[in-house]
Amino acid sequence: MTYKEEFITFMVRSGVLTFGDFTTKSGRKTPYFVNTGNYKTGAQASRLGDYYAACVQEHMPGGITALFGPAYKGIPLAVTTAAALYRNYGRDLPYCFNRKEAKDHGEGGSMVGYQPGQGDNIAIIEDVVTAGTAVRETIALFREVAEVNLCALFVSVDRMERGTRDCSTLDELRQDYGIAVYPIVTIREITAFLHNRPVDGRVYIDDEMKSRIEDYLRQYGAAHG
């Protein structure tokens, strides 16, 4: 299997990718849900880093000078991605993350780990971007830290849904900030791979579920997803 197909299987086995009846924060009724909070073991963290690192290596085999993980979920993602990039590809990239509130004692500041400097090429490591709030906050944060180039955003799943405009939230970020966005997988890739394909003896996307996902994307999908 490709790393994308392995990642889809990994999400299902980890209870992160589930199918049924859910309601998103925006009130949309969705037939599938991605809950990255269900990753909770060392083995899962290690493998998750492998998949992010594979995505980084595929799309940006060079040019990145540091990884940034937005608090809170992005913090372990940036750490495990940095570890996997070194372990699997020999790329020793520094990482950093932000505090929710700036520290007013000790070394102070809002950044932990590597201290970005002018001209750094920073890649943001995130889980699932819905409204893009954390990414927009990151862009605003770095304006106060240093004149860096936020060159890429890596996420686990692209839901391919409309954001505040007809295009997807990820496309909004591409258009508004000129940032390259790379998901490990998209919902359409997930659907194509899992349709009538059992994982550990169970089919998660049968014809009915596939139809529900397609109906959902027809209603909420991005114009250029």
Give the tags.
two-stranded antiparallel ribbon; 10 strands; alpha/beta; 7 helices; six-stranded mixed beta sheet; 225 residues; 25% strand
Textual characterization of the structure:
- The protein has seven helices and ten strands.
- It is of the alpha/beta class and 225 residues long.
- The strands form three sheets. A six-stranded mixed beta sheet has the order 5-4-3-6-7-8, sandwiched between helices. A two-stranded antiparallel ribbon has the order 1-2.
- Strand 1 (17-23) and strand 2 form a beta hairpin.
- Helix 1 packs across helix 6 (187-194) and helix 2 (42-59) crosses helix 3 (74-89).
- The longest helix has 18 residues, at 42-59.
- The two termini are 24 Å apart.
- The mean pLDDT is 91.
Biggest pleated-sheet summary: 6 strands, mixed
Q: Let me know the average pLDDT.
A: 91
List SSEs in N-to-C order: HEEHEHEEEHEHEHEEH
Q: Report how far the terminal alpha carbons are from each other.
A: 24 Å
**How many alpha or pi helices?**
7
What is the strand tally? Answer: 10
Rg value: 18 Å
- Could you give the order of strands across the largest sheet? 5-4-3-6-7-8
The helix fraction, in percent, is 25-40%
Low-confidence stretches: none
Which class of secondary structure composition applies to the elements? alpha/beta
Overall spatial form: globular
Strand content: 25-35%
